[in-house]
Amino acid sequence: MALELNDPFYTEDEALFARTVRAFYDKEMDAKLLELEAAGGEDRAFWAKAAAAGLVGVAIPEEYGGPGASPIFNVILSYELGRSVGYGTIGGNIATDLASMIVMEGGTEAQKHALAPRILAGAIQCMALTEPDAGSDAAAIKTVARRDGDDYVISGSKVYISNGLKADLLYIVAKTDPAAGLRGMTIILVEGDAPGLSRHRLKTMAFPAGGVASLFLDEVRVPVSNRIGEEGGAVALLSKTLAVDRLQTGARALGQAEIAFEMTLDYTRQRKVQGKPLFDLQHTKMKLAEMKTDIAVGRSLFFDHLGRMRSGAYSTVDAAISKNWLCKMSAAVLDQCVQLYGGAGFMDEMPISRLYTANRQFRFVAGTEELLNLQIARSL
Ligand SMILES: Cc1cc2nc3c(=O)[nH]c(=O)nc-3n(C[C@H](O)[C@H](O)[C@H](O)COP(=O)(O)OP(=O)(O)OC[C@H]3O[C@@H](n4cnc5c(N)ncnc54)[C@H](O)[C@@H]3O)c2cc1C
User: What single string gives the DSSP state of each residue in 290-355?
Assistant: First the structure.
């Protein structure tokens, strides 16, 4: 009863890519979930396999050795990750690839030629902006990069960083001009083995084997040539990736609503109440019908916005609308799914419970619901 990929909305290449991604996540994540969980999550070998399958650095242009695909391929990666049971355990991995886009947008020729082969070979990347006292209010970050001759010396801390635990390439947003607010923020690449860098796994509501981490930078010295883009250029560079990031998040939420719906439909057919399948109760059918309808509306919005992205018409307001709506729809579907599971839905051993907790972050990552509503309101 799985909802099929809506192939008519994908180009032939996109549909092919979607199937490759699906096969990869089925084989390398969902089928090996217990193994990966026991090992504390996925590792460089997983990323290297993803790289060999052509799934990392997809937007890196051909002149730097990449496939030069459109950002839609990143959205597809995200959608398929959302459709994976393992996402609730491992969290975001190869689909969180905004870092590559930032390097390709803001990097020098030398940086692009040096970093692209590493990214394409499976180097783990993270982008670190959020701090204990600065999330939505990005201008409040306190991490500072002080110029010292041909080096920057970076000090500060970051929290909630996806892939932060194992990243080889860490793109740190730091203040190079603390008096200049948002215009004084700069992206600087720090290598994973840099002296003065330490990291700690954060225990999270979902992702028991995830790599969300806090980072501490104690006088980390890097050459000025590690700066990505201009001094003070962080916000402009990050803004270029935001629309993709938001459609990716909405896509992941949609994928999760779909897989949770399919699991719940199966469950209601197997679970007996009063001697007959739970599915047979009219109330159950009504709830499933509502969910199916919400998901269908979500898919229409998603494919409409994918089309806008393809034609270059996708705006930041579109991104805020699809991210907010898809994530809210997905949260409502997941909540109803757990309700239909009853107590079983609360048990950690049931995949639905991990999908439910993993779902909760969608409404505040990649721009909180409230800030995105403010953005939509400003366009009125
Ligand atoms: C699983 C996970 C992965 C993440 N990965 C990364 C990552 O890789 N890199 C990274 O840099 N960050 C990452 N984050 C951080 C994420 O981007 C932030 O959590 C998010 O930006 C919100 O910031 P905050 O948590 O500080 O919340 P706050 O900014 O403290 O917001 C708290 C609440 O106040 C509301 N609020 C704040 N300001 C306003 C306002 N002006 N008007 C109305 N309401 C407001 C918010 O909407 C929210 O509801 C991750 C977070 C999670 C949970």
Answer: HHHHHHHHHHHHHHHHHHHHHHT---HHHHHHHHHHHHHHHHHHHHHHHHHHGGGGG-TTSHHHHH
